[in-house]
Amino acid sequence: MLKVRVMGTKKDIKWFRDLLRDCSRIKVIEFSDVYLNKGTKTYYRAYIEVEPRKKAEE
């Protein structure tokens, strides 16, 4: 399992979330809420837990 932190605009994070969910080789275990980064009103962060899909799940 990998724990990943992504940072970007809300639009960028949504795009990446959708990209991961559509990927047949990656299973998204958890995708956190989007949090505002301190000191900026433009960039946000989210936390993701992913793991490789098993052959039977593909």
- Give the number of DSSP strands: 4
Arithmetic mean pLDDT? 93
- Identify low-pLDDT runs: none
Query: Under the CATH scheme, which architecture would be assigned?
Result: 2-Layer Sandwich
Within the CATH hierarchy, at the fold level, what is the topology? Alpha-Beta Plaits
User: In the CATH hierarchy, what is the superfamily?
Assistant: Ribosomal protein S6/Translation elongation factor EF1B
Instruction: Work out the helicity level.
Output: 10-25%
Number of helical elements:
1
Largest sheet: 4 strands, antiparallel
Q: What's the helix-strand series? A: EHEEE
The CATH C-level class name: Alpha Beta
Proportion in β-strands = 35-45%
End-to-end separation in angstroms reads 17 Å
Shape: elongated
The secondary-structure class comes to: alpha+beta
Q: What's the number of structural domains?
A: 1
Radius of gyration from the alpha-carbon trace, in angstroms? 13 Å
Task: Summarize the model shown.
The chain is of the alpha+beta class. It has one helix at 10-22, and strands at residues 2-8, 26-31, 35-36, 44-52.
Layout of secondary structure:
Layout: E1 2-8, H1 10-22, E2 26-31, E3 35-36, E4 44-52
Structure description:
This protein is α+β, with helices and mostly antiparallel strands and 58 residues long. It has one domain: 2-Layer Sandwich (Alpha-Beta Plaits), CATH 3.30.70.60. It contains one helix and four strands. Strands 1, 2, 3 and 4 form a four-stranded antiparallel β-sheet that branches. The chain is elongated. The two termini are 17 Å apart. The model has no long low-confidence stretch (mean pLDDT 93).
